[in-house]
DNA sequence: AATGATTATTTGCAAATCGCAAATAATATA
DNA sequence: TATATTATTTGCGATTTGCAAATAATCATT
């Protein structure tokens, strides 16, 4: 049987490097964590600080400061929630959306290229496998549950 | 069709969190990068600094300092290579091996638990899928090749 | 063998990141 | 109204990062 952990380690490290390399867009440089933050904000509808920080497994204080940086860069907007003014709601500015979209396109292109080395059947099998894996990871009681 | 990038993002983030949570063993705390370094040294036969740094996509100077920390902690040994004394050869001490092994066991246990939510057939399909994916990522010309 | 070019690793340094503890500000509860 | 709880921010010190430059060993050329 395969060394499963090794397979995971290589795969996730490769994907991590890809993300890292995709962080320089049009003269705007953002860090890897900032890229993840933009991604999560883009994906959700006006999430709160806590929500995003938790999904990313980041300490809320570190997250708070990263958001401050992204606001300074003009990529993220913070809006107080009217019905509970303790919470701030996050959204992307147009520039932030542009950056997030560009990163997304690059990563998808890479994945397409990777899949181009497979048959259509293999590709579908792989994608279904990852989906199943995510579902089962979500069911696991051991670790890292919040994420989705 | 599924949002493939999203699937990858969730999966790799979960696995990343798992690694992060596995870094405290028996009173010895190591950081996530340090855990990756131990893993790679353990996997190889007396690799050089450069080799490991490159595989991990780390700046060599950052890597050098991390190795110094691990040596101070008594987890890693640096030996100059007799035939070329510029290069240092890395290996784990007994304590380092113990830490690496313990981390490995924990991660494997988690993965086993995840797979326990699948049929044997699904499990094998998923593992074969990840293997295929790694092979195709290795073939890709776009990004992140060195890794393996 | 002497010189300069190349290679592996380390240090100086300044910036970025991190996370705990404490502060602030708003809401919920009694 | 007083108190507890919750979301976010700030103080602070420790750690991590990566570029440029230093060091140290080997290689290439003469």
From TrEMBL, chains A, B:
Gene Ontology MF term list: DNA binding; DNA-binding transcription factor activity
Keyword Cell membrane in annotation: no
Domain HTH marR-type as annotated: residue spans: 1-135
Keyword Amino-acid biosynthesis on entry: no
UniProt xrefs under Pfam families: MarR
Keywords, in A-Z order: DNA-binding, Transcription, Transcription regulation
Protein's recorded name: MarR family transcriptional regulator
Organism in which the protein naturally occurs: Aeribacillus pallidus
